[in-house]
Design goal:
The protein has 388 residues and is of the alpha/beta class. It has 15 helices and eight strands. The chain has helices at 22-27, 42-45, 48-58, 75-87, 99-111, 118-124, 189-207, 215-236, 241-254, 268-280, 284-299, 304-315, 324-342, 358-363, 377-386, and strands spanning 12-15, 33-38, 62-66, 92-97, 136-140, 152-157, 162-167, 176-179. Bound molecules: 5,6-dihydroxy-NADP and zinc ion. Zinc ion binds next to helix 7.
Length: 388
């Protein structure tokens, strides 16, 4: 375990099929005015909206609704939300939805009282918050992003063809999050598997970095094994509570800052995937699955030891059967077979990417330097071409 770090996660979690009742307790900590943020209407169809509203009413809250948060929330929508929050001087933002709704809620919480354009300040200049932050609570309905217990808030600017995540500090993490696995049962299969791969990729983005003996890597191998096991059950039986609840819990631990401790972390699949998202508005997890295999096969030779360990400890490749190189690539072959088995999108064409877009996507991919190979734009373009 190398490096110097501090660790603190201030989000209080309530987990399980009875967890929504704890909203009563949490609401008492805040003033009367609650901004209720949700997406395109799934919570009205599955009854979660009614359950949340009845708790808000029972606690005498005045509710200001902000609905229609789209998957991959946009900067224009963010400006609208800021106005609602500011004009009504809300005391709490309650996000009921998936990562898009939770991310958007955090973006509104830091932007409502921001005196300049929040896109320029937080997303282009990556500055910290220095104004009032409205507290956020989440009721999660889609699993994958980890947004329920982290400071991430990803916003898309279609005009500039940029999709950028700002990872805010502890002061922006949700104050509480309610995780009821049954709330995820109504997710379409496509979204469920996209979320499963988002989790897997959050883990591999952090795992494939560094060469020291690091406890975080052992935790991640355990999380991956549990995810592979439970996801195979969930794709055949989406209402298997044990599998869905495990997946929900893994998602939270995959990206709540714990497993990043002592790691340099890579994040290049996400940087390329987000740029694909800016050009296509495709589902986040599928942008990651489409580029992953070309990316990992390309960087594998630069991090053989870790890819070999991944093959053996996560995919059960026999360490004695072959040479190190064959073992490392065999792990990736098994990962690819698993991805196809659960129904992930494996090609960018399927997400609407055309040959003409490739240079632009490569150009707008941010380059991070924590992984095994620092990529240039030509290498990113090659990975994109191989992912078509
Ligand atoms: O809008 P509604 O009608 O609610 O429908 C949503 C949406 O269409 C639907 N859905 C959610 N819960 C449902 C449901 N449908 C039926 N039943 C339910 N229980 O699912 C669709 C996708 O929802 P969304 O919130 O967009 O998905 P996800 O949770 O994958 O969030 C994606 C966003 O999070 C960002 C992504 O970039 C993307 O913008 N990320 C945030 C991260 C973070 N905060 O750390 C990290 C991630 O890497 C990711 O970048
Ligand atoms: Zn992700």
């Amino acid at each position: 375990m190398l490096g110097n770090f501090s660790y603190c996660n201030p989000t209080k979690l309530y987990f399980g099929e009875d967890s929504l009742q704890y909203l009563n307790e949490e609401l008492q900590k805040y003033g009367a005015k609650v901004m209720l943020i949700y997406g395109g209407g799934s919570i009205k169809k599955n009854g979660i909206y009614d359950q949340v509203m009845s708790i808000l009413t029972a606690n005498q809250k005045t509710v200001f609704e902000d609905s229609g948060v789209m998957p991959n929330p946009t900067v224009e929508k963010l400006y609208e939300g800021c106005k609602i929050a500011r004009d009504n001087a809300v005391d709490l933002i309650l996000a009921v939805g998936g990562g898009s709704v939770c991310d958007y809620a955090k973006a509104v919480s830091v932007s409502a009282y921001c005196e300049e354009d929040p896109w320029n300040k937080y997303y282009l200049r990556m500055e910290d918050v220095d104004n009032k932050i409205i507290p956020v609570g989440c009721v999660l309905t889609m699993v994958g992003t980890g947004s329920e217990m982290n400071g991430g808030a990803v916003i898309t600017n279609h005009e500039q063809k940029l999709k950028i995540g700002h990872v805010f500090g502890e002061n922006v993490f949700p104050k509480f999050s309610i995780l009821n696995p049954k709330f995820t049962y109504t997710l379409p299969q496509y979204q469920m598997v996209a979320g499963i791969y988002d989790i897997m990729n959050h883990i591999t983005e952090q795992y494939f970095s560094g060469e020291d003996d690091n406890t975080s890597d052992y935790i991640m191998e355990g999380l991956l094994r549990s995810l592979i096991h439970s996801s195979r059950i969930a794709v055949h039986n989406p209402t298997d509570y044990e599998a869905r609840s495990n997946i929900m819990w893994i998602a939270t631990w995959a990206l709540n800052t714990l497993v990043a401790k002592g790691k340099s972390t890579d994040w290049m699949v996400h940087m390329i995937g987000q740029s694909v998202g800016a050009f296509t508005d495709a589902t986040h997890g599928m942008t990651l699955s489409a580029v992953s295999m070309a990316y990992y096969r390309y960087i594998c030779p630069y991090g053989f030891a870790k890819f070999r360990r991944f093959a053996i400890n996560v995919w059960d490749v026999d360490p004695n059967a072959k040479n190190d190189e064959q073992i490392a690539f065999e792990g990736l072959d098994r990962m690819e077979a698993y991805m196809k088995e659960i129904g992930l999108v494996m090609s960018l064409k399927e997400l609407g990417v055309t040959e003409e877009m490739i240079d632009g996507i490569a150009e707008n991919s941010l380059v991070m330097d924590g992984g095994y190979k620092l990529l240039n734009k030509d290498e990113i373009a090659d990975i994109l071409k191989k992912s078509m």
